Every structure is written in structure tokens, then in C-alpha cells.
Amino acid sequence: MSRVELRGLSKSFGPVQAVRDVSLDISDHAFVTLLGPSGCGKTTTLNMTAGLEAVSSGDVLLDGVPITGWAPHERGMAMVFQNYALYPHMNVFDNIGFALKLQRRPRAEIERRVRATAEALELGALLERRISQLSGGQQQRVALARAMVKEPQVFLFDEPLSNLDAALRTRMRIEIKRLHQQLRTTSIFVTHDQEEAMILSDFIAVMRDGVVVQYGPADEVYRRPAHHYVATFIGKPRMGIVTGRLRTSGEVAEFTAAGLQMRWRDPAILVLGPGDREVLLGVRAEDARIVARVDQDEAGFDGAVELLEPLGSDTFVEVGRGEHRLTARVEPDKAPRLAEPVRLRLPWNRLHLFDAATEQRINA
């Protein structure tokens, strides 16, 4: 078992509170990503979990045992850093086996474990090379091997792919995912890249200003964002947002904004009860459809094509009307022309509604 619990974890640097009351339950074998922009507290949270940063308040537990006061080497965790932190004066073999030498493991055991780990990461032919003779991707694999060879209970990754070019990042994501599926070691991964988080994670904790805004399965965080911030942070292209008023009465929901009106029947919205409130209506590109007409019980958005973004297999079409902008995803050979008037169909069961004051999700 390798269950990690963070209970009310907080960290202050003088008057600045970098992390505030972070509580996460990370189950055995799970791959969890701390996702957010620079300065949101995700790396500080990881460092407190690893024991590299003192905790101002709260607790870290491993399999139910409090380890908050334990030294890093006592926690059964291995960390892969952003800058790799490899020893340039050592060859690949010695870098991978360094921690085992510190533990005074028998030479035969070190030899066996280093070579087995190197083969798993396709480093077997590079064991005698110096770090300076390796490419960025090879250095990243050495850093992974150095963590793997310890056979830790928990892997910690601090933006390990941020220094790689786009093509290499893609390959290393696949490598990390393959390793996790093979080893099934509990893993906590830090990144600001939402695409990376979606590809790798079982669960995602979205952070902002030192606080976890939403924590849940990766698909749930994407499809049912609990907060406007989560909705617009995750997803490419960015979720389209229209500010307006929502009126619910009887069986009908009516959304109005400047120059825009939508009426539809939506059981998920009607559970709010009758009322009139200012809301943020969100639509993802894959849920908007360019159509000839919109049925009476569906939401529609009329506008003109303002931007085309061809991406090979898809084209994103930005449609504008007044101050409002929504994006639809279409097949390349079905893309409209710039300035062409179009109509978007917005299925009621794929719309996202957030309270304008609290920015919290309000539809089921």
C-alpha cells in the first residue's frame, strides 16, 4: 500500500501564504497531477510532501502514518526534478546507482538493479557515457531511472518535461505513462500544462493562489468543471464564455445577453428553481455545432466567422456577435469562410453554467 494523504497542508513565507489548507486523498497506485499556473503553490505542496520544505501547518500521511516530521530519505519517496539534478562528473551507471551506494547495498545488488532499470528505459547501451554526452531526452530518462532504482513507494515529479522540446515532451509523456502502468507506483506530478495533465492523470487537483479549486477524476474535471477558473484553464481551445441573465420559470429556461437570447427546456437547470440570476454560460468547442437551423427546445447562437484555426485533423471556428465569442470544432473540409454568417447549436445537456458572483458551477 502507498496511500498519501495531505491534511490541511499550509505554508507561509513570512507574510506570504503560498499554500492554504490543501487536503488531498491520493489512493494506492493512483497518478495524481497538481495543475496550475506558475506561483499557484503546486511545487511548494510537492516539496512539503517530499520533506524538502517545512510545513507551517497540517500533516502528510503515508498509509495512515503521519510522516510530517520525517527526513526526506525516510519517506520512501523518489523525486524527479525539473533540472534533472544529475551529477556531471559521473557516468550514467553511477548516476543511477548513487542512492544505492549511499545505502551501502552489496555491489552485486547495485549492478543487478541498475542494469535492470537501465534496460527498462532503453539506457543499457549508455551506462558508460558521461551526462554531458547525452541528449535532453536521454538525461530525462537517466533522472527517471535514478528514481526507479530506489523502488520507492511514491514517485514525485516536479515539472520534469518542461525543459524538453515539443516532440520530445510528447514521447516522454508516453514513456512516463507506460512506466506508471507497468510499475503501478503511486505518483504525484506537478505541471502547468493542462494537456500533459489530461494525458497522464487518473486524478487532477487544479490549484490557484495556493488553494485547490477542484480535485477529482481527470475526465470529471474536464467535463464538469466545478468553477469558472477550472473551466477556462483546462481545454484547448479555451472554453467560450458568455455573461448574461438566466431566468427559470415553469418548464422553460431563458438565457439573455446583449443582443442574444436562448430559450430551452433543461431539467438540469430547472432544479435551481424559479428565479432570475446573472450567470456565466460556458461552451466547449466540441459541443458547439454549425447548423442550418436550431430546434425550438435547443439553444442557438447566431454570429459571423471571425477566425479560422486549421490544425490538420480539425479546424476551430471562432464565431462572434457583439462582445461575445464562441468556438466550434469542425472537419477541415466543412469549415465556413471568414465573415460568413453562421448559426451554432448548443445542446442543453453540454452547457456549463456558473454563478457570476461566486463563479461556482450551478447546473447539475
Could you characterize the architecture of this molecule?
By secondary structure, the chain is an alpha+beta fold. The chain folds into 2 domains: 4-227, P-loop containing nucleotide triphosphate hydrolases (Rossmann fold, 3-Layer(aba) Sandwich); 240-355, Nucleic acid-binding proteins (OB fold (Dihydrolipoamide Acetyltransferase, E2P)), CATH 2.40.50. The chain contains 9 helices and 20 strands. The strands form 4 sheets. It has a 6-stranded mixed β-sheet with strand order 6-7-8-3-9-10, sandwiched between helices. A 5-stranded antiparallel β-sheet has the order 13-12-11-14-20. The chain has a 5-stranded antiparallel β-sheet with strand order 15-19-16-17-18, with no helix packed on it. Helix 2 crosses helix 3 (107-120) and helix 2 packs parallel to helix 4 (136-148). The protein is elongated, with a radius of gyration of 25 Å. 36% of the residues are buried.
